[in-house]
Amino acid sequence: MSVVLSLESVGVRRGPSWILSDITWTVHSEERWVLLGPNGAGKSTLLKALAGLLPFSGQVFLFDQDLLAMSSQQRAQQLSWLGQNEVASDDLRVWDVVMLGRLPHQTWMAAPSANDAQVVEVALKATQA
How confident is the model over 107-122, as a mean pLDDT? Predict the structure, then answer.
């Protein structure tokens, strides 16, 4: 099994307070994980930090690449954030929301390609959406 995600002593601060501290976690390719916890436990904070929306301390490796050494586009091509309370247009279909994940793979202002549509279809079938 290869390592997909590796966190070493990861912490997130908000002002003078540590919201998360000393998180060490490894996810292998054949594993499936779920983050569970009560409201305010730091689940979303951790995921936002991994998506580059919050600064963090420690080391994070995604597919053996240092997350902090990746450009924002490289990081966006590997992971993204869609929070449960994010405002979205009511007229977007699931297909349209999933297609938003293809934006980092396209050139600026380009229409989605046939390959983008195929990738979205494969993702939707894989998740049975």
Answer: 92
> Which are the contacts of 8, defined by CB distance < 8 A and separation ≥ 6?
24, 58, 59, 60
Residue carrying structure tokens 């869609």: 82
pLDDT at 50 over 80: yes
20 Cβ partners below 8 Å, 6+ apart? 10, 11, 12, 42, 45, 46, 49, 56
The greatest distance separating any two alpha carbons of the chain, rounded to the nearest whole angstrom, comes to 48
Amino acid at 58: G
- Residue 66 pairs in a beta bridge with 61
| pLDDT tens, residue by residue, 29-46 | 999 889 999 998 999 999
Instruction: Give the residue among 101, 66, 59 at the shortest CA–CA distance from 81.
Output: 101
pLDDT for residue 87: 66
| DSSP one-letter string for 94-108 | HHHHHHHTTGGGS-T
